[in-house]
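pipeline: protein-struct stage 2 | run 1193 | Sigma-54-dependent Fis family transcriptional regulator
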Amino acid sequence: MLAGKTERRARGDLARVLVVDDEADIRELLDLTLARMGISTDLAASVAEARKFLEQQRYQLCLTDMRLPDGEGLEIVRLIGERYGETPVAVITAFGSTQNAVAALKAGAFDYLAKPVALEQLRSLIKSALSLPRRRGGSEGEESGGQAAQLIGRSAAMEQVREMIDKLARSQAPIYISGESGTGKELAARLIHDRSARRAAPFVPVNCGAIPENLMESEFFGYRKGAFTGADSDREGFFQAAQGGTLFLDEIADLPLLMQVKLLRAIQEKRVRKVGSTTEEAIDVRIISATHHLLMDCVDARTFRQDLYYRVNVIELKMPPLRERNEDIEPLVDALLLRICGEHAPRLEPQALAALKAYSFPGNVRELENILERATALCNEHVVVLADLQLAPVMAASDSTGREGETLDDYINRVEKLAILEALNKTNFNRTAAARLLGVTFRSLRYRVERLGIEE
């Protein structure tokens, strides 16, 4: 088996793919399809054979079945992630085995295919994997899809975000971006798209809370001429507009339950049906979603479907609030002033800059930008003084009144943390009993404990 494709290695610099499947007909199908695309393949029927191939050769892609005679495809996913990080790996799952697919994506798989393998989806996956950019080293100012310099800050929190974005860009997994309003969730989504294999295709942002409920289905999936009054011609929806690229669903928690059902089916089946059409069409779209709500709380409140939650939240990217990265305020101020005023930006007097560093920014970076826009309009002699900022004194971190400058979110989190710790102490850190005492589900308590950083 190991010598199975050595004759193709003499064909020069062709891309090479490792196929791992214990079914001979599947291996043959994949081999034939790849050969017609001008791609060399090596075929393995087990985890052990795959390991030997990986030790001998570097691959541009690995396609592996989930169930193998001597193990699982997840072993190969983890092995490649640990030792051969430049090689994307896609898994082939049994029809309807969405749990396996999600597990593989969380383990670092690039994407997945369901059996029976659809050749159109297979070719699309292969093209995406082979067009992945090389991993970047570089600095913050280095170009990356033309937008890297917009992710400003050298704090530990922002370094973690940048590192996570680089990892997520090399995957096709659905991503959920969490964070408060104004933390840059859409910017993070754009950066993931711009660094991914989909960078040449469209990035389509959608504000789910801004679409009238009666228009949602036609806006998302499109419609056929005559489907309803006013449908004078065929129209593409968001999914068709994002074909081959990324669909960013901002404020996804605002979707009504009926639309959540239809969105779930589109994500699972990778097919959509236009309003008024009798047939479905295949779609190749990566889903990135975001909301300023705590999505698990929405699940507990039954305003967001649990099954959809697990489909869109395969991997979570957390955007830190500005108050948790105070050291980034000065470089942010410099960059935002340059964006607002160009080369003739005014300077901030030391007192004004100190006040910004002491401010809690409930509106995060978006609020900082608004403050600076106002200040540059009000300032005299090309100098921004403290009065020009017009900061609300009640929100200043140095304010000695109220809650010592805490934002409402900070205050709520502190009270919530104290209540959870009290319940955990009363139950000797038995989380099931603590959840019952607090009147929440075990899953919700576990999520809150992780979010608040509570340790035993």
